[in-house]
Design brief:
Layout (H helix, E strand, L loop, with lengths): L4 H9 L7 H47 L1 H4 L3 H5 L6
């Protein structure tokens, strides 16, 4: 019969290990590192989501300004900032 390493690992998985200060320290450092990576990924995800949101918000603002340009009293070019006066 073939030797199944996963079965051997499963047998050892629930076996209690002797307390070792260095193992506990390494485990705590690994947990902190995993937490840091998770926070960085969440920040990048939020930044990417907000980048598209910012573009859409600017488009909505431009369309609203264009829709209500007649109530401001100025011409469309003056309101949008595209006048000939430089």
């Amino acid at each position: 019969m073939t030797i199944d390493t996963t079965f051997e690992m499963e047998k050892r998985r629930n076996r209690p290990i002797k307390y070792d200060r260095e193992i506990v320290g390494a485990t705590l450092r690994a947990m902190q590192r995993a937490s840091d990576v998770q926070e960085k990924r969440a920040a990048i995800h939020y930044k990417n989501r907000m980048a598209t949101h910012k573009v859409k918000a600017a488009d909505r603002a431009r369309s609203e300004i264009a829709a209500h340009a007649s109530t401001s009293g100025g011409t469309q070019e003056e309101v949008s900032g595209q006048s000939d006066h430089v």
